[in-house]
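Example record

The entry below shows one chain as it appears in the dataset: sequence first, then structure tokens.
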Amino acid sequence: MNSKIRPIKDILWFLALFALMAGIFRMWFGLGATTNMVDGIPWGLWKILNMVAGAALATSGFMIGMLYYVFRIKLFKPLVMPSIVVAFLGYGSSLFSLVFDIGLPWMFWIPFFAWSPHSFLYEVFWCVSLYWAVTAFEFTPSIFERFKGKKIARILHGMGFGAAVLGISLSSLHHSSLGSLFLVTPQRLHTLWYSPTLPLHFIISAMGAGLMFLLLIKILYAHFYDKESVFGSAPKDGSQAIPGKDMPMLRLLAIIAVSILGFYLILKIVDLSLYGKWQDLLVGTWESWLFSFELLLAAVIPVVLVIIPKIRRSPTGLGIASLSAVAGLVINRLDVGIIGYFRDAGVVYFPSLLEWLLCFGIIAATFLVFLLIIENFSIFSESWKDRRDSKGVFKASFDSLSYVWDKALGNSVQRVTLIAAIAIPFGWIMQYPPYHQKVDDKTVVQPAIGVDALRDTLRIDGNREGVFVDFQHTNHQKHLGEELSCKKCHHISMPGDKSTSCYRCHRDMFQETLIFDHKFHEEAVAKSEGFGGFHPENFTCIVCHTSDLAKTAGNSKPCLECHIQDMGLEGVADSSLDISRADSYCSAMHETCIKCHEEEAIARDKENFSDCATCHQSLRQRENLMEAMTTIETSQLTK
């Protein structure tokens, strides 16, 4: 094995095996227990970094296809197969990571049968899936050539132009649609990143950065496997170094890429001027600094470096320029998809350790497959034939501990086995969700406890901390008007119920709770309206939301339009009353009880009737204890 690449493979194997454990835990415990995802941020790390950014970096497949097949630039022929492999693995890993991002991963097949042609996300799913299939088809000739199927390979090569044209169409469609996904959040996404021309920004930046990513891959391949092809060679007689034979091709590729990135930079500047965003850029907020840094990496640095002739002729200089462009695109996608929503959401989403490990583990596994392909197929060159591993990998001798250790370090299969033996247990301990969950959450409300068998008296102790109230339920009911009094406390009930317990809605001890269940409403509306098909919930949106507007809470039907009768709210005058959220349990109890006790204190002429200790016996016991201690201390002082 190449001594340069071996430690890198070891690191990739560690990350991939950590991701294996992370994927198992994510599937077993769900998104809630394994991620830090919040409702205020639309998508998690996997969707943006692996899918949105990953697919953008894999655009070299359709770009090289366009340059070679459409524009007839024959100089790029050696990059056709590498670009196809990059696209095949990039889109494949994006689709794979998407399975872990969705709430019901086993339902991934639904979009193939439940048509939703008006959805940008639906169009993206289909284009990505079809383009991945096209790249898989374009890669098959190499497989047949590898296993002596040259006749079939020639036939498939003849279809290359048609496959390239189809791939160009599919890839350009879905990249613009990825930008369109964020057009529905004009008030939420920060103004520096939101633009009506986001689809154009996405496709242009992906075209430029995708070519720079392929350039970086080619330079790295040359560094580890075929140095003379790019870095050249130094003659033994000490004369001037001979440049690599592939450098003219890479220089032209870099010039085309930075020309596209320069156009992207101009688009950004025009966007800032056209929509009056210069004030937002110069205001000095962390968003403005991040936007500037992103643009510097994505376009300014690559363009400047490639313009300079000396750097343009240097593989290292081209590598730095391409790395900068790739990093800038990744940051841009994270800004548009996640970070740009922080200010509006009022919360910062920072992915959990499991999210990071799964995200980078999928990337690591993708690179391992990439290395496997380039080391065993004619992708960059025919030199892989000279690097075949020796056979008999399982013939290890165990005559001494040192020999076993050397054999494990020198042999691929045994080396990976050793890494797995370390990484899997460590990954389990490091990521196992129950090890990282709070043992006792004092904010989740617990139901009231019946003090007696008939529940005439209920002990209200929402967070079980001991500051309880023994509420005489039957006595209150008699005093306030028998069954007619229920609505005075149970002011809202679940649909079809008459006296829903307080904790069912007021679910958090100290925070407001969203009690509206969107998924349940989709299923209930689909059933009541008689919608059919594989996924009838898709048709329910227009029943509650205005059809030609973004589907938000602001343009939905008032809750009482459907629930004024089945939730016992016939007497409510305000039909627009929002009942989708419930106050904290503590606030609900105090506002209900204290108001009534204050009225009773006046009626009974008992000033202390509304004091806390009137209901909280534990506080009363504490007051009695304090009075007793004060009496004892006073008597001792008197003596």
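Notes for this example: The beta strands are 449-450, 457-460, 469-472, 513-514, 581-582. Residues 389-401 have pLDDT under 50 and may be disordered.
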